Amino acid sequence: MNSLRFKHCALLLALATPLAHAQDWFTKIEAEPKSELWIDSGFWTAHFDSGKGLNGNNKGLGAEYRFNGSTAAVAGRFYNSDREWSNYAGVIWQPYAVGPVRVGAYDYKRVGVNIGIIPTYKDRLYGGISLQLKLKVFE
Question: What is the pTM of this model?
Answer without folding.
Answer: 0.71
